[in-house]
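Entry 12.
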Amino acid sequence: MRRLDTKEQRQNSRTPRGKEAAEKDVKTLSLVDSAARRVASMILDGTLRAGDRLPPERELATRLGLSRGAPREALRRLEYVGLLQARVRSARYVTHHRPNDPASGISIWIQLQPVGEVIATRRILEPAALAAVPALRVNELAAEVRACYDQMARAYDRGAYDAATRDHSRFHLALSQYAPSGLHRVLLASMIDVSAAAQLEIFRTGKAGLHSLRRHLPIVEALERGDVADAAREVADHLAPAFTYSETGS
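Predicted 3D structure (tokens):
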């Protein structure tokens, strides 16, 4: 799971211990990205074939020159995108399923990209998708995103960050549903899914979580006024890089 180094964390982490912990998180999570990409490449280029059993985590970590924690999380990520299957006693095998469906292939590829690049691309595609909403559907969309926002806020307030993250994904999928092409929708759906782990960490990070939650409200209010252009601008502002996604150490 990815960790985030936020401006607020940097400001509040005055002690050497806080700084060391943040650096450790960034390093660990960049190594997860690296491990996931390296194992996925071995699967996609045929080095690891369908049905092959992966070596134990400890052995794989040694082969990759990493601590055990990074490969463990990387393998979980590859299970999620369908490249690996877990069986009894935590053994993992390369799946027989191949991503012949273009949408599936795109989703897997996006899952393996750095989250910072995914967010930056969403900042272009998501406002464009929202701008394409038909005029007759604006009120309906406003009601839908208001419901998503209210549920997200309630979940956040009670500390149910997993639920808040699911509502956050629903919020952004609703904004993207009128994208002008199927490819546009597939790309955004995959990117929103990829971003969920990062959003969960944001919600868990004190002031950063509250700030992120509140940034959604102007989007809702703009749609309730019927101002789609302003809502699209608010989406772009919301997705601006207020957080630093580090890939150092990969």
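Annotation: Residues 113-244 form a domain with the Four Helix Bundle (Hemerythrin (Met), subunit A) fold (CATH 1.20.120.530). The chain has two domains: 5-94, 113-244.
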